[in-house]
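Hi L.,

As promised, DUF1000-domain-containing protein:
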Amino acid sequence: MAHDHSHCGDECNDHDHDHGQESLGAQDNLYSRVDHQNVVALNATNDVEARQIVKPWHERLDEGVFLKSDADDQMIIRIPFTGSVKLRAVLIKAGPGDQTPSKVLLYPNRDNLDFSDVNDTKPVQEFRVAQGRDVGEYAVMPAKFSAISSLTLFFPGSQGADNIRIYYIGLLGQWTERKRDPVITVYETQANLADHEKIQGTDGAFSSPQM
């Protein structure tokens, strides 16, 4: 399985902070398209901070706020969007050291996924997570994430510690307004007695044609 991301050391990290990347972050970043109030983390020490790690682009290197797993080194994070998203990449800053997740598994449009069934559910894509203080970019397969309303991330274990830490999650891609289905009204031309409840007091004594 391919594991594409841009974690490539100090030389690449310096390039990450040039003006071109700043512009890309501002134009391509989906931060403003996340339904922040409904971001949820399972097995986290503080659920309030779940939405706080989906930070704006300029705060991606801030380590003041982080999400830490609670009972063990697994964590699930669900991120809903306010419209339809064509996802291009996931950005993750984690760690430090052995508190870095070993990998991340991605599930689009799986809002009810929890620990009881996640291990038996095949992810659409997964990546190894590299240790480091910079932000790793993980490019997804566009055809598999072309029209999604939410993204669930499962971190199945650490790289040696009893828990994991996530400092930042970012999402890159395109957003479009969610299309609403038109309301179609169907009028009955003739009442069908079989489709209606019996009227109280009539004992169901309706006359109907004999077959």
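Residues 19-28 form the longest helix (10 residues).

Thanks again for sending the construct details.

K.
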